[in-house]
Amino acid sequence: MLHTINKSPFESNTLETCIRFLQPGDPLLFIEDGVYAVQAGNKFSDLVNSTLQNNPVYALQPDLEARGISSTTEGVKSVDYEGFVELVEEHQVNSWL
Amino acid sequence: MRLSTPSCFYITRTIVSTVNIGILLKEGPYNHQASDTAFKFAEAAIKKGHKVDAVFLYNDGVTNVTKHMDPPQDDRDIAKRWNELGEKHGVGVLACIAASKRRGISDDVIIEKGEITGLGTLTDIAIRNDRLVTFGD
Asked: Which residues pair with B56 in a beta bridge?
């Protein structure tokens, strides 16, 4: 199942909650303010890194750009809206709000 | 110089059959990103050949489709573009009746392609589509 997160981890605990529910292999997609989680070198980098051991992690490129995030935690893939749609093609979706 | 054309093409991408998608939008326009994300997602899905069955507007989401919306010229017209999605691509733009009544949204103020309907319709959308994607805050 694809999990989308749209909240900054600095203001909400949806990332931590979501990670507790992740099954190995489930993709995680950060959108909107959620993309702050994958900014390189912040306090969530370790959490994102450990998630990457068992789950692919994506961030929506236009939302990264809108927030001036040019450097993301290594291993995180950026996707555009087409990539978002491709993830939805392959998985059921759980949108964490 | 003459440009050579490749002698054959290889299909490198997996061909995915059409996915039927329902969208649930729970926030109003302009003060949350949800409406923009939902719209761009719907657009991208249609462009990839998928069927976006309907956008169900719930809670403040119903304010996406008021026809008197008149944003500055250099800004996106959110109600208009939902209407166009309905017009050009047959996407149902459906507002929850209970949420609409609470917010003064009636058939008189809704966009042409919009429709006020019951919450049961959301269940139908979830059942008849392959995916339900939620946008909100």
From this structure: B24, B94
